Amino acid sequence: MGHLNLPASKRNPRQWKLLDIITAIFFGLVLLFFLLVFTPLGDSMAASGRQALLLSTSDPRQRHRLVSLVELGHHHKPIEACPANSVDHMPCEDPRRNSQLSREMNLYRERHCPLPDEMPLCLIPPPPGYKIPVQWPESLHKIWHSNMPHNKIADRKGHQGWMKKQGPHFIFPGGGTMFPDGAAPYIEKLGQYIPLTGGTLRTALDMGCGVASFGGSLLSEGILALSFAPRDSHKAQIQFALERGIPAFVLMLGTRRLPFPAFAFDFIHCSRCLIPFTAYNATYFIEVDRLLRPGGYLVISGPPVQWPKQDKEWADLQAVARALCYELIAVDGNTVIWKKPDGDLCLPNQNEFGLESCDESNDPSNAWYFKLRRCVTSTSSVNGEYPVGIIPKWPDRLTRAPSRALVMKNGIDLFRADTRRWTRRVAYYKNTLNLKLGSPAVRNVMDMNAFFGGFAAALVSDPVWVMNVVPARKPLTLGVIYDRGLIGVYHDWCEPFSTYPRTYDFIHVAGIESLIKLPGSSKSRCNLVDLMVEMDRMLRPEGTVVIRDSPEAIDKVARIAYAVRWKATINYKEPESHGREKILVATKTFWKLTSSH
């Protein structure tokens, strides 16, 4: 029996509706399939899904999944950008997080790191209008305003010669609170009392440094000053210092030892740094003493030195220095200069601060998350000849094997072999790999696994400075680096570093996998993805990364390099070197946030 063909108007409305729904769903699914597979909409939707996965910190499992995909090379898009308000983000110095902590001994201004699972896995973008930084040495005097458009210091401190805005630049006249007419006349005054020329003094620490004009001015004297200040109300002072090409580091003297070895600095300087040296039974003065090389100089300018209404604080400061047998060299206006004794401190049995020598169980160079001790480091607790005047002058000390190298078995032989090895390697980097080392494009350099500082020593004739990082779980060789006349810090690379984004032109690491593994074990404490995202945070756009490791490790690194938007090539090692190493050379691409962010 044939079907009765009814006019459309006579069909059952219920049947008509059901057929339409089924047909619409079918064609809708087909259309969606084609849209997702063959059009940019699919990419866009997938990206938004990845973004949700990426920025989610509520479910660590999602984060772990993303890390695994990136490590295996199965994440076929670059890691997403962080939000626009994160351009200056430092994970361990986050004011929103740290403001909840105690104010006692400035605990809340020290570094406090979130756990990896608490951090979004994303790439820090540059600010709008960011430009490739002004090159050294011009950068010492001017930088692009758009790279860090923070006017607060210029507005508050411009009358003291710190910095001021001029057209598209910030310019730096070289002044400071205690030397508004510029650091040069102030340094000239200090030179009347301290041997600032001739190579006797090489390593310096400038505490509470502002925009580091003092440290910048010392460079012309052959003195390498590491300047530090906390992240505080003077927004971005360390960021300005690093943009200028001056060695600097975000740091606070609070409840812990500063991350340097004992007897590291030939010269320590405080210009209105406002550190309460005599508080807490002189704990902060004792920490400065731990860091100052025997025979070295301590300079304090500003309060409380002959300062109105601070007679007691000034008297206490002098009393502590006397208790430690410091020689008073001069009091010139509001500046005091002391010289630390060469030999063992002459701590009397009785002094008003109750100062005592540390016992033998205390390693004075152990300084990673190490609580401050209220005891004085004796010179005999560190083996070797390192007092100012006995240690060779600069530049001879750079290549002379220091006795502190004996922290390692056969340390002197290891030191000499390491020096030769890095001379060969750096020549290969420049001549065969054609890296930009030695050119004006590279000023701020980091060696993430420095050992004896051989890489930095091989760059000594280049217009660079190197932050030598000694991993905190490896042998404590940082004292050797300072004895050579170089600078650096301890750090654990399973945590973010205490610097602003975009502060290094060139990052070098030999043995990257060793930074994340337990010593003597194949087990990882953290992962390469987080480490390379952190390296990307520190690196300037168009900056260079050089990573040396086994072929297997380099293959992993290459997969992750794609995900962090680096352009990478894999190269053979120099022919004179033994082992199986390969060398990955990568450039950070200069990408910007899209309007969708």
Automatic annotation (TrEMBL):
Its EC number is 2.1.1.-. Its main location: membrane. GO terms for biological process: methylation. GO terms for cellular component: endosome; membrane; trans-Golgi network. It comes from the Eukaryota. It is an enzyme of class 2 (transferase). Pfam families: Methyltransf_29. SUPFAM superfamilies: S-adenosyl-L-methionine-dependent methyltransferases (SSF53335). It is a single-pass membrane protein; Single-pass type II membrane protein. The chain crosses the membrane at residues 21-41. Keywords: Glycoprotein, Membrane, Methyltransferase, Signal-anchor, Transferase, Transmembrane, Transmembrane helix. InterPro entries: Put_SAM_MeTrfase, SAM-dependent_MTases_sf. It is found in: Endomembrane system; Membrane. The keyword Membrane applies. One of its GO terms (molecular function) is S-adenosylmethionine-dependent methyltransferase activity. Belongs to the methyltransferase superfamily. This is Methyltransferase. It comes from Gossypium tomentosum (Hawaiian cotton). The lineage of its organism: Eukaryota, Viridiplantae, Streptophyta, Embryophyta, Tracheophyta.
